[in-house]
Structure prediction request, 431 residues.
Amino acid sequence: MDTVLLSRQNLQHQSSGRATILVRLGARSDQLTYEPGDHVGVHPANHEQEVERLLARLEDQPALNDLVCVQRRQDRQTAQGKVQSWVQDTRIPPCTLTQALTHFLDICSTPTCDLLQHFAQLAGDSSDKKQLEILSQGGSRFEEWRWEKNPTVAEVLQEFPSVCAPACLLLSQLPLLQPRYYSASSSPHQYPGEIHVTVSVLEYRTGGGTGPVRQGVCSSWLNRVSTGDSVLCFIRRAPLFHLPADPSAPCVLVGPGTGVAPFRGFWQQRQIDIERGQNPCNMMLVFGCRYSDKDHIYKEEMIEAKNRGALREIHTAYSREQEQKVYVQDIIRKNLSQEIFQLLDSQAGHLYICGDVTMAQDVSQTIHEIVAAQAHLSPSEAAAYIIKLKDENRYHEDIFGITLRTHEVTTKIRSTSFTFWQESTIMTGCS
Ligand SMILES: Cc1cc2nc3c(=O)[nH]c(=O)nc-3n(C[C@H](O)[C@H](O)[C@H](O)COP(=O)(O)OP(=O)(O)OC[C@H]3O[C@@H](n4cnc5c(N)ncnc54)[C@H](O)[C@@H]3O)c2cc1C
Prediction:
């Protein structure tokens, strides 16, 4: 789906040192259909500087405007014996090398052991060759190196300057650049033809905080694209994270930080429902962030939603405003145990949890404890109670898969691609 960037706004205060952006996307055609709670898959582009850095190290490059296409050699056993043919790789459409490295290939993740093995074979210097061979064995040396530097492909080629890497090797061996998912942060009824996302712009230092600064591919790209530029994306339905079919069912929404993203769509939808004359349900928001003045994203919108009856209660945990850190699960345990239990137990209410996996586990643990205490159940009976809530589709989780897990997933995807691409490949200019 082709959308256009309508606007971008940093929701955090400058002094926070972090950026969380509200990105408004507008559909170029009228095919935008989604519900609050659904996900948007965004196809990002790699940073121009990273692409240029890599291009500067590649051998055998086609001319700038030449289209390239990748072909794979296929061996077939026939009655006449083994026949070899070249079949076109459909992973990447015919495009220039720069386009392939910008839009289609993952050039920012650390190369896998298989690619390092190729680099070792192509190294002219014996010391480079030896080190690359050691790294390509995987194991603790590779893991330490990756943890310390998390190097991109260009950085690996910089570290081992004697490697002559042909463009065709990377075109055939690099994994595809994956889309990133974001929760829809708007209601299509409040903003027809638009879809909003709330994105935490990822920036970190490798080596546990001592290495070079790294930026997340997609979040930094969304923070860079200009108004009016195209953003290719698609909707992924999340039917298990939609508002209850019965609009009068009460809901508790737990979403600290960017975990509040889908709930903005929920309260916008409820505002529309109220305007249309429906009876609003009791919707309670439990939000958390570090500081009230720097990180409380959508503060005014939350207050407005409360004034308009879409949110009945807002509870906020500011984790850094007192000596001992306070998180959403702490205020749930301390102030809301009874209310949440009653809502789930006697009012057929729904619980929604959105955010990173650690928070979701902590909140889940707290809810188990609350159920056990309020209903006088053993831990295993409380667990069975929660499973029943899930079976009844009243306990909803939307877990972002913390960034470190994203890396594991990417690694898995890469190794799968490698198995597929073991066969010889060739790049041909076909402009
Ligand atoms: C269903 C779903 C919904 C989501 N919804 C949202 C949402 O609404 N808003 C939102 O902001 N995000 C959301 N995410 C997360 C989002 O999809 C991306 O993972 C996130 O934006 C990072 O992508 P990126 O391309 O910027 O970073 P990438 O380039 O993918 O970089 C991430 C990688 O950086 C590395 N990394 C990160 N931090 C560190 C560190 N401290 N030390 C070492 N390495 C590190 C890890 O290897 C990690 O895999 C969601 C994810 C899922 C699965």
The domain at 45-177+410-429 is CATH 1.20.990.10 (NADPH-cytochrome p450 Reductase; Chain A, domain 3). The CA atoms of residues 5 and 226 lie 7 Å apart. The pocket of flavin-adenine dinucleotide is lined by residues 39, 108, 150, 180-183, 198-200, 202, 204, 206, 216-219, 258, 261, 400-401, 403-404, 406-407 (CB under 6 Å).
